[in-house]
Every structure is written in C-alpha cells, then in structure tokens.
Specification:
Elements lengths: L12 H7 L5 H7 L5 H9 L9 H4 L10 H6 L23 E3 L2 E5 L2 E5 L29 H9 L5 E5 L8 H11 L7 E6 L1 H4 L6 H9 L4 E6 L8 H12 L3 E7 L8 H13 L3 E6 L14 H14 L7 E4 L8 E2 L14
Parallel strand pairs: 3-4, 4-5, 5-6, 6-7, 7-8, 8-9
Antiparallel strand pairs: 1-2, 2-3, 9-10
Helix pairs in contact: 2-3
Length: 347
C-alpha cells in the first residue's frame, strides 16, 4: 500500500523509518539473535564507514544466520581493515571526471550529478565509501555550478541523479532541482540511480509519485538489488506504483562473494526482479574500493556464472556482465563462458 500524501505538519513515513535506521552493530546483532562477539569486529570496522540499515531491511534477514546474504552486505567486518594495495579510495578515477562541484562527466552524452551524500543503507562494498562529499559543496549554491555546466554543454542529453542516494532528498528539494533543469533545452532524459525502493520502499509515496508524474522527460530509474530475498511484497507494491507513474525500471547488481556468487542466487534474483516489473540491466564486477576486497569474485568465475545464467534464462532476464575501468569511454562488457566450456560447479 502506497502512503497517501502526508499533512504538512506530519513527518512522512519514510523519513521516520530513515531516522530509526540501525546504526549500532550491537543492536543489529541483538535484533537478529546473533553472537554478540560479531559486533566487536564490526565496531572497529565501522569507525571509518559506519553501519546504517533500515529496520524494514533487517526484517528480511534470517534470524540467527551470520551468513545471511542481506546481512553480509551491511554488517561491517574486520576484513575491511586489510585491503590489498590495488584497492583504493577512488577506484573509478572519479576525481579526474569532475567538471563542477558534484558533477561527473565520464561518458559522452550523459553526466552524473551527486545530488546528496545521504543513503538509507551503507553497503560495505560501496565504491563511493571514501568519496569526498564535503568538497563537492558548491559555495555559490548546492547545484549552481553543475547546472551552469549542464546548460552550456549541449552534448549532455541525459542527466543521471546519483549520490549517496538522490531519493534521500525530500520531494520539495527534488522539485527545486528538476524545476531548474526544465530550462535546459537539450536535456532529453532523466535517470535516477537509487536503492531506496528496495531498502526503504516507503519512500515511494504519493509525494514522490506526484513529482515523477510532473517531470517533462522520460524517466529511467535504475534500482540496486543484489539478492532475491531483498524483494518482498512492499517492494513489489513500490515498483508497481513507479511503473504506473510512467517510470522505466531497470536493476543493476554487484557480483559479491558470499552474497550472490552462484547460478541459483543470480537466477532467483532475475526472476524476482521480473516479478516486480524490473528488468535486469547490469551485473557489475566489484569496483576495487578500499575495504571491499573480501567481496571480490574473479573475472573467470564471473564469466562462467554469466554463461550459466544465459543457459537457464531468456535473454531479457540476463543482465550484462560488466566492469567499469577508469578513463574508458564506456563500461567494458564481458562475454559469458557457457556451462559446457566451464569447469567446476557453479551452484
């Protein structure tokens, strides 16, 4: 059920849930009935990048299971403190792609705006976990410099709202941004990269849907889900409402060791996404961000998994396996290795 538009003096449900998110590893372990010793390492790892996870997402985790695939994505681990040398704070070279505070221009025809640093959930593999958000504040106004560049550069046909998570902004703040973008005649599409409809589906309320319906451009929303267990009835209600508002829904996942690095997990995810009206889009190899090395799946195995998916699913349910390489003009798509050519089990 999608929330009705709140009264002016009421806090929207999603903001209340966001404020109540779990930020203490000890509380998370208590809620899930886990060994309190798990929290000791988590507290040390969380000093540099703290825990944050909404209670609704916690409720989708398996109680008593320290290996739950949703838990593994959010619980800090001591292994984060020992990354190999080739893992860095800026694995995609984003500092070199900045054209204005908060505006990244990596690829022809599209630019990416860091709309906010806030996220509803802190994923431990996040490639922007060390991004210098404070340095991206425009002294002349939050987005003024970025908007000037977008307006001047007629090659920019598509703007991608990212973060953080752009849907961490309230509806009025989002409308302020898109009202300014209406004056850009060459802007043809708006893309929104967000995990909120997955981890905080209450964000898809009447106010957000009204904002989306008001926009003059086709809107593509790229969701981020990594495991079928993330998609429950409330998420399906949120995606249905987004589709009814005219939004095209795609999903991008990250291939993560211990989370979804099996054929069964990836096939189940694609089927769950389809049941929610979302088309699988990308399956990314892990970006080599410092603190996330324990999630890495090597390319050879990734290609085998992609081939096993292709052998089991129709083509439109098989996401493109890709790696992002700093400085390249596009993402690098990797060809699958099919099961008949791949050694070893992939389950």
């Amino acid at each position: 059920m999608i929330d009705a538009s709140p009264l002016r003096d009421q806090t929207p449900r999603w903001q209340s849930e966001l404020a109540a998110a779990v930020t203490d590893p000890r509380e998370l372990c208590r809620l899930l009935g886990l060994d309190p010793a798990l929290a000791l390492g988590a507290l040390a790892a969380a000093e540099g990048f703290r825990l944050r996870v909404p209670l609704g997402f916690v409720r989708r985790m398996r109680a008593g299971d320290p290996h739950d695939p949703l838990l593994r994505q959010v619980l800090p681990a001591l292994r984060e403190l020992a990354s190999p040398a080739h893992f860095s704070g800026d694995p995609l070279g984003e500092a070199a792609a900045l054209r204005a505070p908060g505006l990244l221009h990596k690829y022809h025809g599209r630019a990416l705006l860091i709309a906010t640093e806030a996220c509803a959930v802190h994923c431990r593999y996040c490639f922007r976990r060390e991004f210098p958000y404070d340095a991206q504040q425009d002294a002349a106004g939050r987005w003024n410099g970025a908007l000037e560049v977008i307006t001047r550069d007629q090659s920019i046909e598509e703007l991608i709202l990212s973060g953080g998570d752009p849907l961490s902004l309230g509806d009025r703040r989002l409308a302020t941004l898109t009202d300014a973008l209406r004056a850009v005649p060459h802007l043809q599409r708006l893309r929104i990269h967000t995990r909120q409809p997955i981890v905080l589906p209450s964000r898809v309320d009447a106010g957000l849907l009204a904002w989306l319906r008001s926009l003059p451009w086709p809107v593509v929303m790229v969701l981020h889900s990594n495991h079928a267990n993330e998609i429950d009835d409330e998420v399906r209600a949120a995606t249905a409402a987004l589709r009814q508002a005219g939004v095209t829904l795609l999903n991008q996942s990250v291939l993560l060791a211990g989370v979804n690095d099996s054929t069964a997990a990836l096939v189940a995810l694609s089927r769950a996404l389809w049941s929610a009206g979302v088309l699988p889009y990308y399956l990314h190899l892990l970006d080599a961000v410092r603190g996330a090395a324990h999630f890495e799946v090597d390319e050879a195995r990734a290609r085998q998994l992609a081939g096993a998916m292709a052998a089991e699913l129709p083509g439109y349910l098989v996401p493109r396996l890709a790696r992002e390489v700093a400085g390249q003009p596009a993402k690098t798509t990797l060809m699958p290795d099919f099961p008949s050519l791949a050694p070893g089990p992939l389950t």
